[in-house]
Amino acid sequence: MASSFAARFATFDDVAALAALERAADVAWWGKAETEDADVRHGLEWAGDLASRTQVLERGGDMVGFAARMGEGDAGLSVAPWLDEPARQAAYDELLGWLEAAGARELDAPRQDRARLAALERHGFMPVRSSFELEMRADAPLPEPRWPERVAVRPFELERDAPVLHELVYSVWADVAGHHDRPFDEWRHAFLGHDGFDPGLQVLTWRGDQLVGAAVCRVYGDTDGWLSQLVVARDARGLGLGRALLCEALRRLAAVPGVELLGLSVMARNQAALGLYQSVGLRVDREFITCERGDNSSVRERV
């Protein structure tokens, strides 16, 4: 059957239209628009070769779908929520077929979006784990950080500290299923290469000349402070360093003018981290289901 969509790759001239498509999905899922044009531009930069790593669907001159292959198996997928259900599923089928051929291995869906989850399963992307986004108001009281003995907080310098920070993150993040081991350049672009990156929001703690803990932070849309990565070296655990890093990171984000909400994400199976985050006032706001292609029986959770 001939496709009812026109397909092409994305260009940077599409940023505004892609952001509008993402914001329509935001409203359908969460009741409010959240995606900024800068977020979309950053994603296209991350994808790299747009001709081979992106796909746009149009109907009647309107953009109604987008897919991108980013990094080591990561992917993005958006379909216009205003399409009727047969057209929406047809768009999913076309984009997911393209993503399969492009080598995508993992996609997420909000738990409540059953149509998206059904489309993913139809193309072999099976549910394997769940994650939560937690949030709290920026004006809520936060505990003072209590630093362990012999641990010092030092300012972050991008060129000096980024390599050792990347090494620490991926030396321990493999402990929790679903955390990808990203190459340095990809990680740096994803977490430190966005518009508005602020070295002053990054919290690095040292014991002598050893980096033993870090919190990587950013602000979305001028109003949402986000803790992207929180990590403690294995030989520095059990000292309260994780809680101190969490409190310091949230306090720095809350102090940014205009920030109204603080948030982070966590794998549902990581009950220790979930309990820590809830202990300072963060509460579960959203749940996502991660779906993977291939042999995932060894990592499947109850989702």
Provide an overview of this structure.
With 303 residues, the chain is an alpha+beta fold. The protein folds into two domains: 6-124, Aminopeptidase; 135-289, Aminopeptidase. The protein has helices spanning 15-30, 37-47, 50-53, 85-102, 114-122, 158-172, 184-192, 241-254, 271-279; strands at 6-8, 54-59, 62-70, 74-79, 106-110, 126-137, 152-154, 203-207, 210-220, 224-232, 261-267, 283-292. Strands 5-12-6-11-10-9-8-7 form an eight-stranded mixed beta sheet, sandwiched between helices. It has a four-stranded antiparallel beta sheet with strand order 1-2-3-4, sandwiched between helices. Strand 2 (54-59) and strand 3 form a beta hairpin. The chain is elongated.
Structural class: alpha+beta
The averaged pLDDT comes out at 93
Ranges where pLDDT stays below 50 over 5 or more residues in a row are none
Oligomer class: single chain
Distance between the termini: 35 Å
Taking the sheet with the most strands, its summary is:
8 strands, mixed
Name of the CATH architecture of the largest domain: 3-Layer(aba) Sandwich
CATH class of the largest domain: Alpha Beta
Shape: elongated
User: What percent of the residues sit in helical stretches (DSSP H or I)?
Assistant: 25-40%
Proportion in β-strands = 25-35%
Number of domains: 2
Topology at a glance:
Blueprint: E1 6-8, H1 15-30, H2 37-47, H3 50-53, E2 54-59, E3 62-70, E4 74-79, H4 85-102, E5 106-110, H5 114-122, E6 126-137, E7 152-154, H6 158-172, H7 184-192, E8 203-207, E9 210-220, E10 224-232, H8 241-254, E11 261-267, H9 271-279, E12 283-292
Parallel strand pairs: 10-11
Antiparallel strand pairs: 1-2, 2-3, 3-4, 5-12, 6-11, 6-12, 7-8, 8-9, 9-10
Helix pairs in contact: 1-2, 4-5, 6-7
